[in-house]
Amino acid sequence: MAEVQQKEAQKNGEGEAVKKIAEAREISVSEFFEKNRHLLGYDNKIKALLMIVKEAVDNSLDACEEARIIPDIYVKIEELDKEKYKITVRDNGPGITKQQIPKIFGTLLYGSKFHRLRQSLTADEPIMVLAGGKMRILPIGEFVDSYLSAGQEEIDVSSLDILVPAFDWKEYRYAFRKVSHLIRHRRGNEVLRIRTTSNREIKVTGCHSLFTYDKGSKRVKEAEARSLKVGDALVIPKRLPSGGGIREINVLDYMEWRDFRKKGLYVHGISKAVFDMLLSKAQRIHKKVDKSRAFFRFCRNGETLDVSEDCLRFCVNGGYLPLYLVLFAGLGNHVKDCVIRTYCHGKITGMQVIWELTPSFMRFLGLFAAEGHVDVRQIGFTFGKHEDIYLEEIARTARTLGANITVEQRESSIRLKVFGSLLPYLMGRWCGKGAKNKKAPEFVFRTSCELRQHFLDALHQGDGHLVKGRNCLMLNTISRSLANDVMYLWSMQGIIASLQTRAGKGLGRNPYFGYVVCVYGDNINRSHIFRTAKPIEPGRVQNHLAMLSALWSDLAFASIKEIEIINSGHDYVYDISVPGCENFVGGTGGIACHNSRGQQGLGISVAVLYSQLTTGMPTEIVSSTGDRQVHKYTLKIEVKKNAPVILSEETANGDGWHGVEVRFISEGIYREHKQSVLEYLKETAIANPYANVTYESPNGRVEFKRASATLPKEPKEIKPHLYGVEVGILARMLHDTKARSVKAFFVTEFTRVGGKSASDICQKAGVDERTGPRNLTDEQIVSLVKAVKEVKLSRPPTDVLSPLGDKLVQEGLKKELNPDFVTSVSRPPAVYRGWPFQIEVGMAYGGSINEPRIIRLANRVPLLYQAGDCAIIKSIQELDWKRYGIEAENIPTEPIAIFVHIASVWVPFTSESKEAVANYPIIIKEIKLALQEAARKLSLYLSGVRRAELQAERKSIFERYAEETGKSLAELTKESADKIIGNLKKLVSSSVGMIEAIEEDEDQGEGEASATENSGEE
């Protein structure tokens, strides 16, 4: 999918150039294209037909690959009149939703997704995320905004190990899976608030897909939110995966160093090795305070902290360090066996750095979340007189944490106070401050099922109850976040809870809203404390969900009971991308949400505009997403406004087909030659051997059948590579980065750059690695670019591109060219201008190939025009073909097909029409090296063929004279003529075999010498 996105990003980049030119001339993009159609390849009537087919077929292949669908493409060209044709292109891709069809085909540079829409949640919708080793349920807007800068719409986070629960499409089981992108954009559609019978709720844009049940296929399917109606069943998680199984926590992981800068807290028991490590990373400086004093300066993540040398030496001698310094230096994992102490009012108190997660501690947290509050120096629990049974339990646990307690009897309640220097701080961060802001500690989501249940039990004992006479366990809270957390926690226990809201009159002027989380039926018996009040009736659904299914172990269904349309507010909406599954859990209580990516640039809308300009006829689009609804639009483009004009639209019932069919009526001239539609489709079939392409032309029907059912591997997306980054690009990146130091910039903004490599670059450039990126001078930036060339960096990873691979290259050549010999070579990834690329070369010889043929491709798209300006042709021309025994005049003259494919994040085309690759030296070098290796293999084959022909000719000559020589010898020796002739033939065969073996060894030696010589060029 990443390659599809890379192709579309390139389209958008080139489209942006057109857009800026148009804006400068104060005309619309459509009007600009109307007057400058040649810029995008619509030079003449012959080429125009090819460009229309090419744009439609490329989009179809991209959509199928993104959805991991084996493509079936149908193309038809019908002659309607002289130089007037109807072009039809149909695919079996994922289809386009109804509302997006006019925008995609009727607006140039629309920028929306072609086959997959921007599908988004409002900023306040909660999602479940495992990031930085911690579990959080927080608003998606808050989470995504923390990574994006102002004006930024999308960020690649694939290197950050951000995980969300997502189900697979085979067994429907939830697991934590990696997020690749975070997305934010302005809302362009209505917002729908969807509520289910269990009061799960989510707000999404109308074009967002949720999941429902298809009765026909008996499978889960995507469903656009605006197509849903009351009574439809939504997929919800029946069981969410556990975030781990941890048995202990490091309390330092929950502290911020600034909060302890002026507090007398120290970490005792630090080893000498830790001191040595800490001081080795510090810089000794002098600062004038009352007088010049020595300090140790510590740096981390672009921040600096200065600590007095006298203070630090005193601490070292005592075997302890200030807590704030331990936190700043990130020593949490190195002081696990230590103790945190404070000297407050002359009294020493202390607690361990590592806290064990025990049943008693989990119950302590649950009771605090229900009944606790935080003061400046203490935490308190308030219970009714009848709840005094919890006092001793809490006191016992508090003492194990190094805290002191007091009990205060009140008129109608009991107040238990727990004193400890760190407890108020930690409990506030873990469970929240104030009744309305309570939440579940994040590590509760990451511990075992048993310990999690102890937390839930104590929480329900404190703020819940078992309904008398009913099998219903209720939890009451005025904290929406806590209610939501509890529903997610029950899901991790494999139990579906429901939610109710209640309004009431509080002590203040305003009413309050309360939340009630309910667990029903036999699910209650999962508790360590509570039990059902009466027997469970067999087969009865106890959880008030309209539909539940036992067919999928981790999925269930909840009926929609209310849909509300919201047309105001929510300026920005948010999405995340989960490659492979493209779903996550969001909303109140947890609902399965769909997401996907991939953008569309100029291409298809330009084809619509060209056909309209030349014939005045509209374009017809038929689309279905497989939901048995087929949408048909007839439209034109309003050139002045760059907007679609819908002439007709209709929706009909379908048969389950999914895909897109587009019908253009355009001016053109149909010819079949080396740059025709037929040739393009043939080369497309070679480059995509897994696709089945059917073509009906004015001259007859041709079918290019698939040779493989295997799609190319899905590439991963990466950051740029440092090799090849130019001064201007580096300067822009330095200005835009969030990193606070040059070293951090290199490590975080580029792939395959570690801390040591970043330091080496800075050292060679004479730049302090701690310098802020925006503080660098132009001279320093130039020095950094030069220094990069002197530091050895690893090549880009091999999984970031989507090459065909040797097997598919050879299968494609075999199925369409039927050669006698075929070989292929794949080069390792290289870099130009910071972006990786990979060269693949195939060579086929003989068979049905009767003349030389060159097949140029970029990201599996054939390049038919501007061959003379292309780096591929230049590389072929520069090769010494005669050295490999191949006759050539600039290019080979023998019956050879040369296949050259460049797979890249960003192909450097020579023009907006994308017909030739620019002559970058590194690209030419990589193509030549691949050609040389393939030519060596072909040379060995040709040597064998020619040697066999020569030996056959030698043998024929000897055998021709064997009988005459035999007869003459028989007359001289008086021996049998037949015997002599037989012996002569045996001698000829053995002699020819010896000569053939000697020549084969010589050819092999020459091939190895050639390989050695050429390897020096690399």
Comma- or semicolon-separated keywords:
6 domains, eight-stranded mixed sheet, disordered C terminus, 1018 residues, 49 strands, alpha+beta, 32% helix, Heat Shock Protein 90, globular, six-stranded mixed sheet, disordered N terminus, 23 helices, 28% strand, Endonuclease - Pi-scei, Chain A, domain 1
The best one-word shape is globular
Please identify the structural class as seen in this structure.
alpha+beta
CA-CA gap between termini: 31 Å
Strand order of the largest sheet: 38-37-36-39-2-1-40-41
The CATH class name of the largest domain reads Alpha Beta
User: What would CATH call the homologous superfamily of the largest domain?
Assistant: Histidine kinase-like ATPase, C-terminal domain
User: Which range best describes the helical content: under 10%, 10-25%, 25-40%, 40-55%, 55-70% or over 70%?
Assistant: 25-40%
How would you state the average pLDDT, rounded? 81
* CATH-defined fold name of the largest domain: Heat Shock Protein 90
CATH architecture of the largest domain: 2-Layer Sandwich
Report the sheet-strand fraction. Answer: 25-35%
Give a quick account of the main beta sheet: strands, pairing sense, barrel closure. Answer: 8 strands, mixed
Number of strands: 49
Count of DSSP helices?
A: 23
Flag low-confidence runs. Answer: 1-14, 20-26, 110-118, 540-551, 597-601, 1008-1018
Q: In the residues, how many domains can be counted?
A: 6
Radius of gyration (Å): 36 Å
